[in-house]
Amino acid sequence: MSTPFYVSPQQAMADRAEYARKGIARGRSLVVLQYADGIVFVGENPSRALHKFSEIYDRIGFAAAGKYNEYENLRIGGVRYADLRGYTYDRDDVTARGLANVYAQTLGTIFSSAAEKPYEVELVVAEVGETPEGDQIYRLPHDGSIVDEHGSVAVGGNAEQISSYLDQRHRDGMTLAEALKLAVQALSRDTNGSEREIPAERLEVAVLDRTRPQQRKFRRIVGRQLARLLEGGGADVSKDADDEDSAEE
Question: DSSP characters for 43-86?
Fold first, then answer.
């Protein structure tokens, strides 16, 4: 009778973490930044059907890097949690912190279970406040831990280098155009230090806009609004984007 192969719990968890990190690293990076009037989500995504960024609830947005089918399941679960909690109690009781705790429990349970593989995803849950001081951004790695972020955060394949770039250049009170340009510059940097151009049609951009009069603060920026922001304009971008985005909502 052969002796069962033994792996220490520490080594097993390290192997699972390495497996998840490699899966996440294969995906394109994305960044989430605070700006004067809200929070902007920017990522390279050639697909117009498979979104990295989505609305969860009135003031809450969701971003994810990694395997699409896995983070899409998490997104749908988050929407159901938010809808049920808002209906049962009050819309103000749905918060990014509460949602992050739910995701952390789910990811942590999956990561520590020997019966299934860990999720190859890294999440960002953001909530826009009435003022910049009230903004909340939480990063959730594959193991279910929660990291409270401020200013900017990057997840995905080249996240460490991008985060370092953003930390040196991001500042409070940036306009949307300034924050978007900084995000694109960060995403354009390769691991070897060189830069490449990311055309507007390969970008997915969304914002949580605190100045939006609607209860729902999430909107996507596409087409001519995105082009004008990348060129440095943006005087009437918010109004135009709402008009173009109304068809999606």
Answer: EE---SSS-SEEEEETTEEEEEEE-HHHHHHHHHHHHHHHHHHH
Give CA–CA dist 158/188, Å, rounded: 10
Token pair 């709402």: residue: 242
Classify the C-alpha dihedral 149-74-96-180 as positive or negative.
Answer: positive
CB 37 within 8 A of CB 80: no
Helix-strand-coil split of the chain, %, nearest 5? 40, 25, 35
Cα angle 58-227-210, degrees, rounded to a multiple of 5: 25
Cβ partners under 8 Å of residue 15, min gap 6:
7
Q: What is the pTM of this model?
A: 0.89
What does the pLDDT read at residue 234? 54
**191, exposed or middle or buried, with CB in 10 Å at 0-12, 13-18, 19+?**
exposed
What angle in degrees, to the nearest 10, is found between the helix axes of 237-245 and 223-230? 150
Angle value at C-alpha 207, between 202 and 211, nearest 5 degrees = 150
Q: Which of 130, 119, 109, 116 is nearest to 19 (CA)?
A: 119
pLDDT of residue 243: 46
pLDDT at 125: 98
Question: What is the block-wise mean pLDDT of the chain (249 residues), using blocks of 10 residues?
Answer: 68 88 89 96 91 96 95 96 95 96 96 88 96 95 94 91 92 94 91 80 95 95 92 56 46
